Amino acid sequence: MKKLFNSRKVNLATLFTSLVAASVVLTLLILTISSYQSDKESLTDTYLSLNYSKAEKMSQSVESLFGSMRTNLETTVRFLEANENLSDEEIHESLELLRVSSGYFNSLSWIDETGVIRAISPVSIGIKGETIAPGLSKDALDAREPSLTSPYTGLSNRLIMLMSQPIYSKDGTYRGMIGGSIFLQEENVLNQLLGNDAVEQNGSYYFVVGPKGTLLFHPERNLIGESVYENPVVRKLTQGKSGMEHVTNTKGVPMLAAYSHVSEPGWGIVQQTPYSFLQASLIEQLLQMLKNMLLPSLFLLLLSVFIARKLAAPFTHLGNLVDQLAEGKTVSQPLKETLIKPHWNREADLLTKSVAVAFETLERNNQRLTESALTDTLTGLPNRRKLDEVLTEWSSEDRIFSLLVLDIDHFKSINDSYGHQKGDETLKELAAVVQKIIRPDDYCFRYGGEEFVLLLPETNRLAAYQTAEQIRRKIEKTSLIPDKTVTVSIGISEFPTQSRSMAELFQMADQALYNSKSKGRNRITISDVPG
């Protein structure tokens, strides 16, 4: 009977040892899976938001570009209508001047009402005097109203897109149209506008489609002119929709895609990141987390096995804790305090304290992962996700602050001339310069690419201008790149004086930045919206 009793005691200790080991391993497994799922959702939302922001920005740029192109054509037509006695040669000179000065079109032509090409710039295209064949260009001529065609192959055997503007004589007689052509598969205004960093190091890229799903711009120029209507995102763009979602492209590659519709020409811009890049980032973070947890977990496991053989009573309490963790419930503060509360039994006291140490380690790891999701890995600055949190908090408090949008001038030339590694070093050094100038309570965020956002609390836009000027001058005088002066352009808006809408406030600062760029760069512009 005594042997049987002893045998049962050994079996019971073995059972408790197995239960403790299984509980620790299961807890770590569940926490690892939970962290992975949480990080995956966080990174997915972050990349979708960043892609949507870039697609919207590109959409606004394209819409602004086409507005300027249309204005140029209208101005030329008004000049020709006011001087209708100009010869064909004089009209050609006007078209040549417009093409060279604006840089918007690869070619400009005057097609009379019969379809004959009376003047064309440049003349090297060699189709002056020819008659346009039935098709999109003939449809545009017959429509007698402003139009923008879909891509088609023109008389010069190029894939082109034609923007046209009708021209009339003073007595109202139709004289034909002035047409501006963009050679889609050659260097053109779209390449100049959209070609900067079209493909990022993480595999992200963007492309532009026409109203029928035809590629108008793509990093791979040989694809321009092809139809990608089968892409579900492209189909939504052709319906005038904008948004962001997981999608599989026409090559079968899963992507995190954001898309924005450009209303004026009816185009769509798609910015997308390969899902494989996000998975690689998640795996890297997961391996690092497991590496950090390995020794504490191993120590905890060995200590738990030893203590389980000495004492069985505390397992009831620890089982409740593991059950809560396994069910994904938040551990209450009283239960946390129980873990560190001294126990009358020395063995039980050691066991509970060991579990508390492991729990704190896991919480710290989760906290570090959360902080990393809010930090830009290159510059160490808070990222756009953190920016959204701060803006939400400050706006709810009705706090006065100024918002500054800062962009490095000609950053593409730095990458092209010195390489992306030097470009990254420039971004880090610039971030360090800004951090030294701003106050401890001010924020500087890496918004994306070469763009930064600053939030200056309790600061109106005039005072913010002074800080911006310090930053501008300091960067201009700092040798970020040997033998090259790096400059920045800045736009400023103020909350709540100018707007209580965060989107509108950011748009004001962004427009002010655009004005700084358009006026020559290396300058600061305060939003002129009344407030």
TrEMBL record:
It comes from the Bacteria. Transmembrane segments: none annotated. It is found in: Cell membrane. It holds the Pfam family dCache_1. It is a multi-pass membrane protein. The keyword Membrane applies. SMART domains: GGDEF (SM00267). Keywords: Cell membrane, Membrane, Transmembrane, Transmembrane helix. The keyword Cell membrane applies. Residues 399-529 form the GGDEF domain. This is GGDEF domain-containing protein. It comes from Planococcus wigleyi. The lineage of its organism: Bacteria, Bacillati, Bacillota, Bacilli, Bacillales.
